[in-house]
Amino acid sequence: MPTDLSPRSETSAIVLPSTGSYPLVASSLPFGMYTGSVEFLSGAVSQVSYTYKKLGGDVVDIELTPSNVYAAYEEAVLEYSYILNLHQGKNILGSVLGETTGTFDHRGNLLAGDLSSSLAGTSVTTKYPRFQLGYARRVGEGMTTPDGFGGTTTQYSASFKPIRNQQDYDLQSIISSSSASGVNEADQNIDYAGKVKNNRVIITKVYYMSPRAMWRFYGYYGGVGTVGNMSTYGQFADDSTFEVVPTWQNKMQAIMYEDSIYTRTSQYSYELVNNRLRIYPTPSYWGLDDSEDKVWVRFYIDTDAWEEDDNYKSGVNGINNMNTLPFDNIPYANINSIGKQWIRKYCLALCKEMLGQIRGKFTTMPIPGESVTLNHAELLSQAKEEQTALKDKLIEMLKDVEYVALAKAKQEVTEATTVVMKATGLPIFVG
């Protein structure tokens, strides 16, 4: 028969009870991230009972308080949110680079906007973004402007009237002067007024004849049923032409005709070095008060890559890396049963770690007649192994369900289905 000791020896004056209480949860949380969530408070309270049972609280003393468990539960939820946000960040970063709505400023503070995160259910963390080309599109947009295919950089046009017998012209000076005055040489308002300043202008085209090839594409001859070829730059015909001639041929004719304007009808060429234009040969007939005798240039203004464009918000102040993704902690109400079970297990592992740290301060506890060795080293080892295993399993599972991985899996299913269908006999139709 065991001997009853009086007074009874206890390893701690504070021992984890078998249940928790709502009022103590909010005041016990180190970060206070989920104090407004009833679902979280309920989960934290239930975790006390779970921890009590799993650590054998009805058999041995557990030197933890409910506050310890509440703190561990909050940490477990935050860790779960952290891992899932990393996963989602990898999924969508390429599509949202440069986005400006609801992003963070340079201090890491969330800007006001439609996607401003909160625990009220509007968190971007719970949203599925529309698929976008994102970064690839923005790279393409930066390359299209110099090639004349659009882009996000505004292109402007300007003109000047050459001077008789003057061969060289400083386009930078000419355009900058017009920008500063706000008008061109004809005293007309210009759309690039005040925009050049000290910036360099990038010339993309120089011309003195109209580039509108289609003005002369349907020209001076033709007839019913007439079908042109690549060498007929001027033509008009009835509807039969448009039905017989493919659209691509019309496009080729337009391109070839425009090139003909600059090759066959032009008497001038030019050289452009550092925005200094040299015309060959030296113009000798300009200056005869012919208002149409102008040289036109197309250009865009070289702007700082870190500045926003007035005409297009390029997103330089938007998302640029994982840090500026508008992610807040996942609202607890949006965590499903899969996530909550992971949180329970991870919280238990954290409680084991805390209990091991507490017991490690005293390797042995004296009792009447002898001493008891505490299991702090075993608890710490178990806690670290369980935390690592839980995180590794969650990360591995998330890798399997990344958007790219899901697309590849769908591809394999489609290919397998195709193989099966090939081996399936087709029904015979009898008329």
Which key features would you list for this structure?
11 helices, three-stranded antiparallel β-sheet, 431 residues, mainly alpha
What does this structure look like?
The structure is a single chain. The chain is built from eleven helices and eight strands. It is elongated. Helix 3 (66-96) crosses helix 9 (337-359). A hairpin with a 2-residue loop joins strand 7 (364-367) and strand 8 (370-373). The longest helix has 31 residues, at 66-96. It is mainly alpha-helical and 431 residues long. The strands form three sheets. The protein has a three-stranded antiparallel beta sheet with strand order 1-6-3, with helices on both faces. The protein folds into two domains: 22-129 and 323-420, no CATH class; 146-301, no CATH class.
Summarize the structure.
The chain has helices at residues 22-28, 38-54, 66-96, 135-147, 171-181, 214-217, 239-244, 247-263, 337-359, 376-400, 403-422; strands at 155-160, 168-170, 201-207, 269-273, 276-280, 295-301, 364-367, 370-373.
Instruction: Tell me the β content.
Output: 5-15%
Work out the number of β strands.
8
Largest sheet: 3 strands, antiparallel
Structural class: mainly alpha
Number of helices: 11
What is the CA–CA distance across the termini? 96 Å
**Principal-axis shape:** elongated
| Rg (C-alpha, Å) | 38 Å
Reading the helices and strands in chain order gives: HHHHEEHEHHHEEEHEEHH
